[in-house]
Structure formats: structure tokens, C-alpha cells
Amino acid sequence: MPKWFMPLAGLCAVMFAASPFLIANADYESTMGLVQKIFYYHLPSAWIFLLSAIVCGIASARFLFRGSPRQDRLAYAAAELTVLFGAIVLVTGPLWARKAWGVWWQWDVRLTSSLMGWMVAWAYLLVRKYGGPGSDKLAAGLALFGMANVPFVYVSVNYWRTIHPATTVVPTLPVDMGLALWFSVACFLLLFVLLLRLRVHLEEQRSRLDALYLSLDE
Amino acid sequence: MSLVGAIGISVLLLCAPLAAQQPQPQPQQQEEFVPVSQLPAQDQLPAAPLLVIAYAFVWLALFAYLVSVARRLSYVQREVERLESDMKRGSRS
After folding, report:
1. Chain B residues in contact with A42 (beta carbon < 8 A)
2. Where in chain A are the domains?
3. How far is B68 from chain A (nearest CA, A)?
4. Which tens digit of pLDDT belongs to each residue from A182-201?
5. What pTM was computed for the model?
6. CA distance B21 to chain A (A)
7. Which of A95, A114, B4, B74 could form a disulfide with B54 if both were Cys (CB 3.0 to 4.6 A apart)?
8. What whole-number distance in Å separates Cα of residue A126 and Cα of residue A149?
């Protein structure tokens, strides 16, 4: 692992430990009250969910067109993180919605397209695990679909009728709410970089192991 | 300015906030009590448990994933070391 990994992991842990204090100090939203504070982890996870789907898609495209195994390892790692952060979004969102909207789930465009992106990431992992020979290329194709879904997820709240808050909420946040949000975004972004590096390292070690098995057979 | 004029202006300035103040809306008299069970579902629900579950889920999911990656990594590294030592032993003999 690179030298920067452990200091940054320590910094990330400290930032995550500090984030609840900033979130607690942020003002309450006028109509939703306490439950709106789920937003400070829900939104950064959603952004990281979309970012990892993009990373997975770009790495898969490079793998498909250049055949680089390094890009394939990056795509595999990013797909797993898409599933992880997608799960966080799809659990924290309904918990917030139950209080704010009175229902756990709405089949509106934002929620449905997010669920679809998450299922595409799951499909990628399942194809990689059980697809047999050639599954890496098939999964890379799936990752392209996952990436194409990302802009649709993001802009959907601005173009379709939905009760999900619009993207205009973030730029209009007052200072204390904005500070808590951007601090959480920094925490999740740093965590994403660290987890991605760790997960890529695991794939590198697996490739090394496969090479050793092959050399033993010969 | 004469003394009377100065007093007049001072009184006007002092009274201006009182004159500008709007009459406060009177709280409405309650004619019936509504039991909390008759409120819409989302108004009856306490927010704190939902908030705690959401944050606990995030922390637990991240921790579980970290443990899972660490376990997989240690297994693969152990296997790599074992194979490498087997190969070294094989090349010596």
C-alpha cells in the first residue's frame, strides 16, 4: 500500500468522528425538523454512489477498448463501492421519506432510476462472480449502462414531477447547514478514495495469486 | 428650532415605533382537542429513531465492508506468501 494511505485513513476516521458534532450544530429545517439531518449523510453517499458508477463506467470503457487489466481491476473495485454507497442511499432515503412524506417509497423518477443504477452495479458483480469466461467484457458493457444512467438520476428531479427535493436545495443552504454538508462530502470523498485504493490493492493481490497458480501448473 | 418644536419631534420619533407596530394576531381559542392518533401518519412518527437507525446503518455498513475487504486481503496475502515459499523450496530441491 502507498505511504499516504495510513495517514489519510487516520484523518478520515477523525473527520467521521467529528462530523456528528457539526451536523448537530446545524440549524433545523423548518418543515422537516430533526429527521432532515439524515440529509448530511444521505446526499454525500448519493454523490459518491454516482461518482463510483462513473469511475466504473470509464474504467470499463478503457478496458473494453484498450484491454488494460489495470482498468478492469479499477472497474471491479468501483462497482463494489457503487453497491455499498447505493445501499446507504437506498436505506437512509426511505427512513427520511417515512417521516417527511409519510411513505417509505415512491415510484418516482429519482428513486426508481437510483434503484436501477444500484441493480446494474449488482448485476455487474454477479456477472463477474458467476459469468464464467468472458464475463469481464460482459460486465464492462453493463457498467457502461450504469454510467449512462447517472446524468438521468441527477437531473430527473428538475424535469419530472416528484416530491424529492430539487438540486437547487444545495446552493441555497445557509452557512451552518452548508458547512455540515460540505464537511460530510469531504469525509465521504476521502473514504471513497481510500476504499477504492484498498479494493484495487485486493484485486492486484488476486492477480498476483492467479499468476502464481499458473506458474505452479506449468 | 424652538424648544416646543424639539419636544414635538422627539415625541413623534418616540411614538413612531409604537404607531408602526402591527397588532399582534391573537391566538385562536381552541374549540376541540384532537388526539395525536388522528394526525396524519408522518406527524405521529417520532423522528429520533429514524435518524438513529439511518446513522447507525451508515456506520455499520461502512465498518462491515472494511472488515470484509481486510479479511479477503489477508487471506489472499497469506496464500501468496504460502505459494511463494513453496516455490522457493521447490527450486532449492
Report:
1. 54
2. 36-217
3. 10
4. 999 999 999 999 999 999 99
5. 0.84
6. 26
7. A95
8. 19
